[in-house]
């Protein structure tokens, strides 16, 4: 109980921390732009932007991005403006479980949420030190960035196994560079990147932004680390600072025994606006039951595809659900996650196909079977008991 009482205030308080000196934030934003194929803003990065490798990178990534920006992004934003409440539908927080480094979709859908909370298995990584890299190292970094982002541009989701291998083997070393590129492409300024994990494993410490530790009883010794990163950013021309918190963790029930305070933190986010997409139907089984209950407790507004919270469970809790796109039997190997109740809802509501890609069901450029649900909870039920 002691841990549960101290964690949530400290994570929430992180957003109020002062922005560091201008040079530090200027370097972050310049590095983000450099990796995104955009002209850097610091003179010390201009030499890198004159190299043949960067010019090739800029042409390639900006060419791919222009197709996404003028196609997928325009269509998704038009749908958002017509179908969703403006900005941040409910509360101040957008919660995105099993997100990987997918900043683009959550920001496109909920651009005015002050706080974005994301988590997945992927490691955190760090801001690349491009100033100290050799020409070969810098070239390899650009190749890695380009390959990673183009994969997202084509699919609009990350393949988890591929992503884990990619982030472990190349110079990206984690999700932070991917977040920086996505933010630069989205036209926001990166202000600060701060680790949220303590400097030692969570065996005798609580999650802080300062590195200070709090003693835990010996019987609460942990086997795993809970790591996170805080990224402050703001829209061009705006004074409003927004923040993204990403946590690297195993969210199964068994693994959560090592950091139960994380579930308590998620509950403090209520009332949250939640996004779930391309989530491998993890919330349909028994291994993520604790997380599923917490998401249901914290969420009041939900945008998801069929890989998210089961339709029948939402209806049982009193959620009102509008469906969009086309619902088919899930792609292999997830055919067993077919939902008869959801199929009946599609038959009854008869929605039009979605004008953008969402989730796993894109068969080809000519055949888009993407599905999407928008769910609202009009009254909050009593929270599920904590297991």
Q: How many helix segments?
A: 12
- Tell me, what's the shape? globular
Order of helices and strands: HHHEHEHHHEEEHHEHEHEHEEE
- What is the makeup of the main sheet? 9 strands, mixed
- The assigned structural class equals alpha/beta
Radius of gyration: 21 Å
Q: What proportion of the residues is helical, as a percent range? A: 25-40%
According to DSSP, the number of beta strands is: 11
Name the beta content range. 15-25%
Name the strands of the widest sheet in spatial order.
3-4-5-2-1-6-7-11-8
Q: What oligomeric state do these chains adopt? A: single chain
Give an account of the 3D structure.
Helix 10 links the parallel strand 6 (about 270-275) and strand 7 (about 300-305). About 35% of the residues lie in helices and about 15% in strands. The strands form two sheets. It has a nine-stranded mixed sheet with strand order 3-4-5-2-1-6-7-11-8. Helix 3 (about 50-85) packs parallel to helix 5 (about 135-155). Residues about 1-25, about 200-220 and about 380-385 have low confidence and may be disordered. The chain has two domains: about 1-75 and about 90-270, no CATH class; about 280-380, no CATH class. The protein contains twelve helices and eleven strands. It is an alpha/beta fold and about 375 residues long.
